[in-house]
Specification:
Blueprint lengths: L2 H16 L31 E2 L14 H13 L1 H21 L5 E11 L18 E14 L4 H67 L5 H35 L8 H4 L12 E2 L6 H4 L1 H22 L4 E12 L11 E10 L7 H68 L4 H36 L12
Parallel strand pairs: 1-4
Antiparallel strand pairs: 2-3, 3-5, 5-6
Length: 482
């Protein structure tokens, strides 16, 4: 066969592959059972309300806390879980390149040398020496092979690999969202703990002044030693409350350090000085339900998983049909190195190969049923993921509204308790009430103040949950797709 005929044959097989059919169903994203609008309840006066507007991709900046924004930025740059997710994405892309290589011809170049002696009574000796003398044999050339993708097996494999790359991308986006959420939560908890510690320290000062007053009253014969012991017990109880709060603060700072990939106590100097709990008072834009499917990484990842499972059905179906492979080689062969490359030493071989499954003992049918079952499971998982996301957003919105109501009620309770403590201190100084009344009122104030600080942090934490459930945040930090 002449080289021109070889080229014509290759072109013919290429044309045949391009016109071949693609097995398996074409993927379409399933419809989602999401409503057109959120079921929002009117917010109370002075409360932050959820509205249907564009979600801020950098929602943590809305708290107006420079420390929080800096921590999130550093965590997205240094977190180890994010680095692992990025590595998994690169592995997925490398696997995709490996699979896509099956759509192109494989070409090998080689150079071989051997020295041998043939049998005098065996087959013909290519050296022409009838097996009486050893000879050298030199081979060089190019070999190639290419599968005509008549049934779309390779195309569906690449399609499934592309979907797997998307799965890895969404996994990284999900880790980014989780890192942002954990950083914001732990920072808010830290500031809440520091505020709780400040409340205890303030009440400790009040208790210490009360103890001093009681000791003076004993000297004047107005109070008893029992009341001094009760006042001292109150001081010691306040001091005992500080140690767990200090421990919690140190552990939260270390937790933030770990998120940022830093050693323990690395953020101590930066975060140990007390700060206010981050808060946000404006309206909260939350988009519309239909945007969840485009924004939440878990929904996008479930869609990619379903896509990969659907494409794998086409791969399994294509295995039932013949495979046609075109292979050949073009090179030189000579007994002497000096002859290698001359026109007379040229050689080539070319031809198609056909492989047809005849009996597989049910293996191919089982593989097809397996892929169809996985596709059905992935479809159910997609619907469940969408519904779960909807529930998470609704629960987060309810919690955000309820936490604001609780905060306002506790703030009123703190005001009343503070007035009651001022009044009972005056009465105690005048000797009209005993110390038991002072202890009761001060413990009530401390409990209300601690609950109010906790509720203030809970409002901010619930807002973090709102934005995390909406899937917002990873867009502002995701690297450009390569």
């Amino acid at each position: 066969m002449k080289l021109g005929g070889l080229a014509c044959a290759v072109a013919g097989y290429c044309a045949l592959s391009l016109t071949g059919c693609v097995m398996g169903p074409d993927y379409q994203t399933p419809t989602t059972p999401l409503a057109a609008h959120w079921a929002l309840t009117p917010g109370e006066a002075g409360h932050s309300r959820a509205i249907e507007g564009e979600v801020d991709p950098r929602w943590w900046d809305r708290f107006g806390d420079a420390h929080l924004s800096a921590l999130v930025r550093d965590a997205l740059r240094s977190n180890f879980d994010l680095q692992r997710a990025a590595s998994r994405l690169e592995q997925s892309r490398a696997l995709r390149r490996q699979i896509a290589a099956d759509s192109l011809p494989a070409v090998d170049a080689g150079l071989e040398y051997s020295r041998g002696l043939n049998s005098q009574r065996g087959l013909n000796d290519p050296s022409g020496r009838s097996g009486k003398q050893a000879f050298n044999l030199w081979n060089s050339g190019l070999g190639f092979s290419w599968e005509a993708d008549l049934w779309g097996r390779v195309k569906r494999s690449v399609e499934a690999a592309d979907a797997s790359v998307r799965m890895a991308e969404e996994d990284r986006h999900g880790v980014q969202l989780l890192v942002i959420r954990q950083t914001a939560q732990q920072y808010i908890q830290l500031r809440g703990t520091q505020q709780a510690q400040a409340v205890v320290e303030q009440n400790l000062k009040i208790a210490q002044r009360t103890l001093e007053l009681t000791q003076l009253q004993v000297q004047e014969g107005v109070a008893t030693d029992l009341e001094v012991s009760e006042a001292a017990s109150q001081v010691a109880e306040m001091q005992a409350r500080l140690a767990p709060l200090q421990q919690n603060s140190a552990q939260l700072i270390n937790a933030l350090s770990l998120l940022l990939g830093k050693a323990p106590r690395a953020l101590q100097a930066q975060l140990a000085p007390p700060g206010q709990v981050p808060s946000y008072q404006g309206d909260v834009p939350i988009g519309v339900p239909s945007e969840l499917a485009q924004r939440r990484p878990d929904i996008r990842g479930a869609d990619a998983h379903l896509h990969a499972a659907t494409a794998s059905i086409g791969v399994a179906r294509a295995d039932f049909y013949p495979r046609i492979t075109l292979s050949g080689n073009l090179g030189f062969q000579a007994l002497q190195l000096s002859d290698l490359g001359s026109w007379g030493s040229r050689s080539f071989a070319f031809g198609p190969g056909l492989s047809l499954p005849v009996f597989e003992g049910g293996r191919l049918q089982g593989a097809l049923q397996l892929q169809e079952g996985r596709q059905q499971e992935a479809a159910v998982q997609y619907q469940h993921t969408v519904l779960r996301a909807w529930h998470e957003v609704d629960d987060a919105l309810v919690a955000y509204q309820a936490s604001q109501q609780r905060r306002d009620s506790l703030q009123q309770a703190v005001r009343h308790s503070q007035r009651a403590l001022d009044s009972v201190h005056q009465q105690y100084a005048q000797g009209t009430v005993d110390f038991l009344n002072v202890m009761t009122v001060q413990n009530a104030l401390l409990a209300n103040e601690a609950a109010w600080v906790d509720s203030t942090a809970a409002v901010s934490l619930s807002l973090v949950d709102v934005y995390a459930s909406l899937g917002g945040g990873w867009e502002a930090s995701a690297p450009a797709r390569r």
